[in-house]
Amino acid sequence: MGKVLEKLELDSTPINTKGYEILLKLVENTSRDSFDLNYGLFMYNVNAMEQLERMDFAFESLKKKLFGSLHGVLRNELFENSEKLKALQEKSVKQNGALSSPRETVKIR
Fold first, then answer.
1. What angle do CA 64, 4, 22 make, to 5 degrees?
2. What's the rounded Cα separation, in Å, for the pair 5 and 21?
3. How many C-beta neighbours within 10 Å does residue 17 have?
4. Which residues contact 29 (CB under 8 A, 6 or more apart)?
5. Within 13 Å and on the Cβ side, how many CA atoms surround 62?
6. CA atoms of 5 and 74, how far apart (whole Å)
7. What is the spatial distance between Cα 76 and Cα 81, in angstroms, rounded to a whole number?
8. What contacts 1, CB < 8 A, 6 or more positions away?
9. Residue 56: φ, ψ to 5°
10. Are 55 and 1 in contact (CB under 8 A)?
């Protein structure tokens, strides 16, 4: 996991949380490990593939949850804007009379 975090090139910020500080320390400690060590752990640990699959599943699960929430936000904004447009149209009808149909055309003679 440390090698993955190292690829993100994380930096300290003025608003680091304690959790973020611990994450930075993890990256600092594991980035010194050689690729050969990681390769050896991968090749000779019988649980390595399962752990990689679990990490992949966890990441995909988080992405689905985030995108699912985004869909809800966008849906709310669309419906809210639709209701605002409808209210403006109704207000316009009350002030100016009926709206003309988009299919109506003006004939010039």
1. 95
2. 13
3. 9
4. 2
5. 6
6. 31
7. 8
8. 26, 30, 55
9. -65, -45
10. yes
Backbone angles phi, psi at 40, to 5 degrees: -65, -45
What would you measure as the largest C-alpha separation in the chain, in angstroms? 89
User: Among all chains, which residue has been given the structure tokens 């994380």?
Assistant: 10
pLDDT tens, position by position, for the chain (109 residues)?
Answer: 888 899 999 999 999 999 999 999 999 999 889 999 999 999 999 999 999 999 999 999 999 898 888 877 777 777 777 777 777 778 777 777 665 555 544 455 5
Structure tokens at 98: 């009926």
Q: Which of 25, 56, 74 is nearest to 48 (CA)?
A: 56
**What is the rounded CA–CA span in Å between residue 84 and residue 90?**
10
